[in-house]
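Margin note from the TA: students keep mixing up input and output lines. Inputs are the sequences; the output is the structure of the whole complex. Example:
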Amino acid sequence: MSGSTYGNIFKITTWGESHGAGIGVVIDGCPAGLSLCEEDIQKFLDRRKPGSTQFTTQRKEADSVEILSGIFEGRTTGTPISLLVRNTSQRSSDYSEIASYYRPGHADYTFDMKYGFRDYRGGGRSSGRETIGRVAAGAIASKILEELGITVTAYTEAIGPVSINSEHFDLEEARRNSTGMPDADASARAEDYLKECMANLDSAGGIVSCVVKNLPAGIGEPVFDKLDANLGKAIMSIGAVKAFEIGDGTKVSSANGSSNNDSFCMQDGKVAKKTNHAGGILGGISDGSDILLKAYFKPTPSIFQEQETVNRNGEDIKIQIKGRHDPIVVTRAVVVVEAMTAITILDSLLQNMTSRMDGIKSFYTK
Amino acid sequence: MSGSTYGNIFKITTWGESHGAGIGVVIDGCPAGLSLCEEDIQKFLDRRKPGSTQFTTQRKEADSVEILSGIFEGRTTGTPISLLVRNTSQRSSDYSEIASYYRPGHADYTFDMKYGFRDYRGGGRSSGRETIGRVAAGAIASKILEELGITVTAYTEAIGPVSINSEHFDLEEARRNSTGMPDADASARAEDYLKECMANLDSAGGIVSCVVKNLPAGIGEPVFDKLDANLGKAIMSIGAVKAFEIGDGTKVSSANGSSNNDSFCMQDGKVAKKTNHAGGILGGISDGSDILLKAYFKPTPSIFQEQETVNRNGEDIKIQIKGRHDPIVVTRAVVVVEAMTAITILDSLLQNMTSRMDGIKSFYTK
Amino acid sequence: MSGSTYGNIFKITTWGESHGAGIGVVIDGCPAGLSLCEEDIQKFLDRRKPGSTQFTTQRKEADSVEILSGIFEGRTTGTPISLLVRNTSQRSSDYSEIASYYRPGHADYTFDMKYGFRDYRGGGRSSGRETIGRVAAGAIASKILEELGITVTAYTEAIGPVSINSEHFDLEEARRNSTGMPDADASARAEDYLKECMANLDSAGGIVSCVVKNLPAGIGEPVFDKLDANLGKAIMSIGAVKAFEIGDGTKVSSANGSSNNDSFCMQDGKVAKKTNHAGGILGGISDGSDILLKAYFKPTPSIFQEQETVNRNGEDIKIQIKGRHDPIVVTRAVVVVEAMTAITILDSLLQNMTSRMDGIKSFYTK
Amino acid sequence: MSGSTYGNIFKITTWGESHGAGIGVVIDGCPAGLSLCEEDIQKFLDRRKPGSTQFTTQRKEADSVEILSGIFEGRTTGTPISLLVRNTSQRSSDYSEIASYYRPGHADYTFDMKYGFRDYRGGGRSSGRETIGRVAAGAIASKILEELGITVTAYTEAIGPVSINSEHFDLEEARRNSTGMPDADASARAEDYLKECMANLDSAGGIVSCVVKNLPAGIGEPVFDKLDANLGKAIMSIGAVKAFEIGDGTKVSSANGSSNNDSFCMQDGKVAKKTNHAGGILGGISDGSDILLKAYFKPTPSIFQEQETVNRNGEDIKIQIKGRHDPIVVTRAVVVVEAMTAITILDSLLQNMTSRMDGIKSFYTK
């Protein structure tokens, strides 16, 4: 009920604070018989690891994952998979000062109001390190989807004012550079922009896009658990996301029906759509086209400029934040968006298996 | 699991099709002792009723609600409240033709893919009439919030290219006119735009804004059930919504930390914020400022122009939709956004009661 | 959260009070494509209907069910099925006196403590009429199970001191007589016993047994959602049940491993068990044998003898209950046990579909 | 959905196999501000630790708990508490043989049917070691209940044919001896009986009783989440439990209303009951009396006598189980029953806080 669990069938529960003993996740409902090893998970964690580029916090963490349960002889057993990443680089002293005041843009004040006190070291539970559990679970969800032929791919769409040009789209470039942008030219300009921000002791926002390919039509539920509603929650639950779009997103509000409707057509003997303004979802259910979504991230709230705020004694004060902070959230958040999308898509696929009598009958009377 | 239930503590389950016997909702978890009568609910339903202006479907429905359970001597008993609205204006013949093909922008195709067949009359379960249950439940949630001093207010922010001017903001105007815009001037221009759309056999999109006032700080959960994540799901689950924003929304992606951070300050002896870019939520938890959100609606997919599509036999065809259809979703959706917001806020408030030992102790040892 | 919803995938929500407008249930998650009509449900409701024998309350109710949603052209659509039974025989005046005091063995006092007041007419929500919703939903679950070749059958095992003799077992007898006992001889003795109880202004307890046949091995979850744990909850949630047994039940506490273990053996080329002390469940998962369970019901608390109790003013008083009351709960509860068992078994079957990668793959890549 | 999570508000998720890296639990929804250290949990784990008496497996495990998250400066933070117990005594070779066949009374066959294969080492997930997570979580629930003045106490009621005499009741005796019986004389006789069982290469069943004191009236939900239904599930979910009773349990079936009804009476100015046949629950809601429940455990299925069974190749075989096995489940299960009861009671208490408008209003407008 405190909301550290996500998913209905493929159900993940994350735990851990930035400066506690470690961070982890328990995945309950992973189907039995999936080949899985630590390397499958580690390669996702490495994509969000700090310290790899000039634009990420200089905190160095191996973030090595240990599988504690749920795997036997290299395959999932169907029982809970418990994953543990020990925290190793906790310079808590950096944070001792922030115990006494509320950093703008952070959850310090709201945690105090909710719980009466807080683990102030590195943001405690509200730290971006919480996403380690999500990414680890997402690695498993992605592996299952892959076996079904479905791919989930996220990338940086924009950093501050710099957007990618879809004509230059090159996903391998995105996995190589420091921005996660699938466009070498835009990436170079974004790097310049980020350096400028850092020079100004400031930070930048950005956009992450995600595309799901080969999802069959018919996935998602028609009312409250619409596929886009569940994706909306999944993405909005990532810290710093302030807006979510599916398909054409905000643009639909100024469109007309005649331009916004996607015409159906036959293509290679199958039903297809001529356009994809809808982003692959109609009435909350997948239509067989690519699922297209976007997440808008705010700039890192920890900036090194002097800021005004209040302390726990109720006094107006001025503060200057120290420590290790990324100038941008987006670059490391790409894999988090991918993970949350994969988990949500997989969960919807699993839920869908019980939708029809014919499917149930053929499952049980084969 | 099929997702017709929403909420954890204040839990609603909607049912019903456009052309079935009726539409309804069961509310489980409504606290005992709330004064409640049918009129409390009817006045919300009347705000979404068709046939009231030139821009809503000419289908005339009284949409009269009957309370079937959960009330005794004018007060809620704490047991489920079952609400029923009979369908009375089912001109099913209008829809017989659409049984054979897939309307662009509608859920016809996706329902067929999911379930193998569909109740094609008026869109069946995917009809906007499904929201009657949401609005009825939202009326009750709003009444409870009101008793706690919390208000939830939605209005039309934009219709097509016409946006309100916040300097002219007048909520009473919004409740009076046909657009739901709290700005008489913008409303007049929006009416002209809608008439133009109708003349072109076309439809328009728009934006609904919602503000929650007087919500205490500390409400919401810090990880997956962030208050903004839950609001995101609530709003995205409304048919035709393609984007969701909290606070500055999409704009944060091009902002800097220095401009986007809201400084805390003391005001009348209390912690406040100088600005509200965050929209009242930090780290998923309310900060005591107004909660500000926006929902972007696509244009009504039912337009009277000729459209291309396919039929159930897998043939490319051209169709011309008949029947009764609003040229815009937004005007009648305002109260739906308000309802889903109220339900979500109330549910978070109730969940929050168990967050702290001191609160639990004082509750049970008074 | 208030617990009027049961099931994870095949999810039912009941509502209604004894003397309100009606009683009903919403079933969400019923698979699409099941042939279903009101008669399928009515025949189950008729099995719990009052007024049919000398041992049931003389309240006459047609208890006619109306399907409000979820069926189109004779088949389930996959969307919520809403069922309504109007209350027609509310002689509320019979109950007006009990508003002021707490009947022994009833929930009057506990409702007042929980909610601050109560709908005292006929027990309100705590009335046995609440089970109408369960039985209606159970009729649908049973129909689905039947299509998979699985049967669920409950019957009266004992009434007061009179038990059936398993050598006389005759299920058709059980459906014919007034006790629900599948043994004509025991039934006749039980009738005599009940008449004696009535002559003494007293009531009797009893036992309901239920057997599930043809459930495949492998159904149920291994930890908290053990099949027997879920059945235990399902059965204990029926009013007046005070004990639940699976297989040999209480007898296992005085058995030895050597006598209690069921040996596996090959039978017709399949794994079978020589005995079934376990009642068909090992480690929370079905083993392919019959599922055997028992529910122990207390005597009807409403008796016509003078009883001691207290009133709402905190005074010791003596009362004499009037009105219409069955001298035994068991006879009408048989179909309720059957319904709750069927719902639980079906829900477990549906959950089990996502247990294995090979099952998922063959479902999605056929 | 795979059922490794239990509870609605105080929500626990257990993971781990007998011979994997470790066993653990994540508790989400523990209120903030509870003083908590490892010793609070360890003392509960020590009560179920193997190797402490002649009647428990000679496997020696320290079962030392490590708190990985959720505690800061000695108090719970309101975020998930992750607890880890490393497995240290895995003599897997003992178990290699059982990979090929199905032990009677164990979950070997059912796991294979469900998942296609199993972690056969020590029973894998179906091992009694799974309960470590339950006991650790139960320690925390008990501590919270204690702060509210509520106590939960379990003890051995019977071992095989030997039952305690309630006139000799001495709880401290139960915590001291090897049987967990609060009666020195019965305990001595039970020891003799167990030695006899061991000499016969056999095992014994037994009964665990549990009593909850000082629970206020009004706790529990009236329909599916009746307090006794939830307790029934909690207890039936413990491996080897085959029957559950509340209050007089199975005896009610042969009682009459006149003897089974508990009369209310005024006592010290408060409503009380003259007797407690109901076991403290009426209509699913606590009535202020002691909650009384019993769990019936089957004999340990691992016995050293030769047994008949089948192997994975479908051949009838004879087996002789080796390894380390308790001759009785009950003695170590006492603390598990106590833990599951405490968790269930606490969860119901927390849920109840939102039952009434007056409680909510006074919470939020203090």
